[in-house]
């Protein structure tokens, strides 16, 4: 070997060994970065971890509102009120008069809705949440409570459970389901709370006991469901019985008021109410028509129906009725509410004033004549 190479050989060996060691270190650290395990970079989640994260997300969605909407939503239908008209060529065409909502309460096609949703309808189109459409027919209506029952020829339909509106408490969740502003918004869900119970609103000669909620109820929601957090129907929403220009006040007919109306319509095709056979004027009516009542309490008997219960019991025109069945009667709504609480055929005490003398009468109330 050349003496020069002999002297340099140890240095070449050291250089080669150093290169091998350095390369190994570089490859080691480089492998870590290539594998994505650097401290500054998060490891990609495994399929098991992703599945667990999705399960947690699903649990977060499993709320009382979601469960209530899933339970009742399929039972809420859209109702389109149709009528016949003539076009410019004198052809008969079908036009939409309005749209509302309804709630299936029996799987054999029985639906409760508002009377004003089906009023004057010549044809009804009932749209289910699953996309099916049926022709509906009205079994009976009750304009006094703004309720009606509609039937479609179908079986096995999703039916909502009617709950107990008397058990409601102020502040509990309230969920409104319906079709606000028409069928384009079918199945809309709005959420609020029960704001008040037994709200009394006088409309004409009727007094309505209603549930107040701040869940949004708009035209088209009429006849839809008010649902509690247990997923049962506690009221039938009504956009007609509302306060114009006021936000955050939705009103619903309590289901405990709805239930006997439904039952009476199914059994008799109408709602049977007690009838006294008097025409009365209260202070509001007197002020409206220019009369002057010389009494601060009671209602003035302006007319007695010949042969009616009041006539047979001895009441006269000009009497002032103060109480019916122990309830003070100072308005037409008071009188109607007192009679609604009486069973047809029952005897009821009426306290009246005649020429300064307080008298008691006990007429037997009859069934209100059909209009």
Description:
- This protein is an alpha+beta fold and 371 residues long.
- It folds into three domains: 70-152, Thrombin, subunit H (Beta Barrel); 165-268, Trypsin-like serine proteases (Thrombin, subunit H); 274-367, PDZ domain (Pdz3 Domain), CATH 2.30.42.
- It has helices spanning 3-34, 47-61, 64-72, 115-118, 255-268, 283-289, 309-313, 332-340; strands spanning 76-86, 92-106, 110-113, 123-127, 133-142, 147-152, 173-178, 188-203, 206-213, 225-227, 233-237, 250-254, 274-275, 278-281, 299-304, 320-324, 327-328, 350-354, 357-361, 366-367.
- Mean pLDDT is 80; it is low at 12-40.
How many angstroms does the end-to-end distance come to? 133 Å
Count of β-strands: 20
Broad CATH class of the largest domain: Mainly Beta
The fraction of residues in strands falls at 25-35%
């Amino acid at each position: 070997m050349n003496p020069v190479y002999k002297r340099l050989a140890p240095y070449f060996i050291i250089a080669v060994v150093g290169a091998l060691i350095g390369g190994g270190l570089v490859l080691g650290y480089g492998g870590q970065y290539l594998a994505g395990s650097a401290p500054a970079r998060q490891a990609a989640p495994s399929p098991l971890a992703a599945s667990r994260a999705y399960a947690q997300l699903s649990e977060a969605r499993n709320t009382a509102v979601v469960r209530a909407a899933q339970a009742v939503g399929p039972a809420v239908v859209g109702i389109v009120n149709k009528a016949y008209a003539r076009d410019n060529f004198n052809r008969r065409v079908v036009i939409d008069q309005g749209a509302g909502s309804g709630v299936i309460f029996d799987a054999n096609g029985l639906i409760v809705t508002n009377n004003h949703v089906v009023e004057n309808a010549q044809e009804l189109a009932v749209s289910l949440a699953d996309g099916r459409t049926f022709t509906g027919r009205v079994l009976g209506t009750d304009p006094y409570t703004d309720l009606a029952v509609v039937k479609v020829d179908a079986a096995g339909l999703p039916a909502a459970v009617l709950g107990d509106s008397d058990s409601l408490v102020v502040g509990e969740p309230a969920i409104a389901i319906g079709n606000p502003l028409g069928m384009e918004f079918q199945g809309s869900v709005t959420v609020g709370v029960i704001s008040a119970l037994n709200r009394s609103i006088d409309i004409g000669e009727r007094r309505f006991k209603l549930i107040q909620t701040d869940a949004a109820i708009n035209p088209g929601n009429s006849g839809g469901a008010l649902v509690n957090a247990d997923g049962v129907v506690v009221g039938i929403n009504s956009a007609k019985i509302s306060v114009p220009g006021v936000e955050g006040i939705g009103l619903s007919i309590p289901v405990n008021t709805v239930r006997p109306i439904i039952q009476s319509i199914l059994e008799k095709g109408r709602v049977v109410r007690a009838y006294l056979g008097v025409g009365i004027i209260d202070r509001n009516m007197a002020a409206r028509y220019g009369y002057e009542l010389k009494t601060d309490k009671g209602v003035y008997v302006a007319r007695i129906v010949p042969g009616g219960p009041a006539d047979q019991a001895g009441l006269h025109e000009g009497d002032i009725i103060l109480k019916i069945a122990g309830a003070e009667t100072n308005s037409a709504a008071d009188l109607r509410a007192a009679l609604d609480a009486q069973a047809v055929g029952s005897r009821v005490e009426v306290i009246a004033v005649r020429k300064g003398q307080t008298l008691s009468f006990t007429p037997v109330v009859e069934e209100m004549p059909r209009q």
